From TrEMBL:
NCBIfam families: apsK, PRK03846.1
Organism ancestry: Eukaryota, Fungi, Dikarya, Ascomycota, Pezizomycotina
Protein name as it appears in the record: Adenylyl-sulfate kinase
GO molecular function, one term: ATP binding
InterPro entries, A to Z: APS, APS_kinase_dom, P-loop_NTPase
UniProt entry keywords in alphabetical sequence: Amino-acid biosynthesis, ATP-binding, Cysteine biosynthesis, Kinase, Nucleotide-binding, Transferase
Organism per entry: Penicillium alfredii
Pathways involved: Sulfur metabolism; hydrogen sulfide biosynthesis; sulfite from sulfate: step 2/3
Statement: the UniProt record of this protein carries the keyword Transcription regulation: no
Family: Belongs to the APS kinase family.
Length: 211
């Protein structure tokens, strides 16, 4: 890290920003196998938060960020680690702005997810607390994900075309204590999203639903 840099705090505190926007900033981190349904849930969650609750939310999708922010990264373990580190930093920026960041990444390694959580726990300079981090485990068996396989990735992994593919030739370390655990092969999308929203409401992270 460069040593000739200085952090410049905002002239608006997080509490002031939250009061002005009438919402809290936080990160919702969806993790699970490829084809587990993370992106589908993230899209619907973003839609419901914006449409039904009037909450400013923004989705950071695993594929989308590789078109821009992370287009220089491959899929080696080191590159995957850096991919998650960058996204965690960006998600924290969104959360610090009093927005809800919704990330949907395989993020297969527990250590990387722990790093993302700890990053949010550290207070931004000028603030006295960290930011909420909600880990959502989108859980489906490998055989279910493989049957869905909309991109044909599992087939390519089985054929050896794709190396180090999570769930086949590379590990997926399932979260031990996620805030929300969704068995996504057992419930419809709407119900799964409501599980997440119910948790957010219970924690007081969302403004009351308008009647």
């Amino acid at each position: 890290m460069a040593t000739n840099i200085t952090y410049h705090a905002s002239g608006v505190t997080r509490s002031e920003r939250s009061a002005l926007r009438n919402q809290r900033g936080l990160t919702i981190w969806l993790t699970g196998l490829s084809a587990s349904g993370k992106s589908t849930l993230a899209v619907e969650l973003e839609h419901q938060l914006l449409r039904d609750r009037g909450v400013a939310a923004y989705r950071l999708d695993g594929d989308n960020v590789r078109f821009g922010l992370n287009k220089d990264l491959g899929f080696s373990e080191a590159d995957r680690n850096e991919n998650i580190r960058r996204i965690a930093e960006v998600a924290k920026l969104f959360a610090d702005s009093a927005s809800v960041a919704i990330t949907s990444f395989i993020s297969p390694y527990q250590a990387d997810r722990d790093t993302a959580r700890k990053l949010h726990e550290v207070a931004t300079p000028g603030e006295d607390s960290g930011l909420p981090f909600v880990e959502v485990y989108v859980d489906v068996p490998v055989d279910v994900a493989e049957k869905r396989d909309p991109k044909g990735l599992y087939k390519k992994a089985r054929e050896g075309v794709i190396k180090e593919f999570t769930g086949i030739s590379a590990p997926y370390e399932a979260p031990a204590n996620p805030e929300v655990h969704i068995k996504n092969h057992e419930v419809p999308v709407q119900e799964a999203v409501q599980q997440i929203i119910a948790y957010l409401d219970k924690q007081g992270y969302l403004p009351p639903k308008k009647e």
